[in-house]
Design brief:
alpha/beta; 4 helices; single chain; STAS_dom; Anti-sigma factor antagonist
Length: 139
């Protein structure tokens, strides 16, 4: 069952738990105004015991450097809790942001949240973050 955790005029965030993964769907703009809300929402989920995340960016209409910064911030928090993070449904425009920042190879990126949740999470998969492991296959 999908649960809304943020409703804002330009953005909404909801989550669902699938196959051991907390799938966080962001819908709208991720910018200097909304990024802190997203960070706090994900950190709250981590603090509530969620460990393994798939971040679904399929409905993100805009992301700036603050948006990328918030992904890095909650990746650190997830890593501290020996969790894992996969990113799904990244548009070409957003993928370019990951490329330009040099972070594309640091994340497992999947075409869809369904594909991101197919295999069970492995605790501690972010132990070597931000350096990609040899096993990570980023399209």
């Amino acid at each position: 069952m999908r649960t809304n955790i943020i409703r804002h005029e330009s953005m909404m965030v909801s989550y669902d738990v699938v196959n051991g993964w907390t799938v966080v769907e962001v819908d709208g703009e991720v910018d200097a105004h909304t990024a802190p809300m997203i960070r706090e929402a994900v950190i709250k989920l981590v603090d509530e015991g969620h460990q393994h995340f798939v971040l679904d960016l399929g409905f993100v209409t805009f992301m700036d450097s603050m948006g990328l910064g918030v992904i890095v911030a909650f990746t650190k928090r997830i890593r501290e809790h020996e969790g894992s993070l996969r990113i799904a449904s990244v548009s070409g425009r957003l993928l370019k942001i990951f490329d330009l920042s040099g972070l594309r190879a640091s994340y497992e990126i999947f075409p869809s949240p369904e594909e991101g949740t197919q295999s069970a999470p492995s605790p501690g998969s972010l132990a070597h973050w931000p350096h990609p492991s040899e096993e990570t296959d980023c399209p």
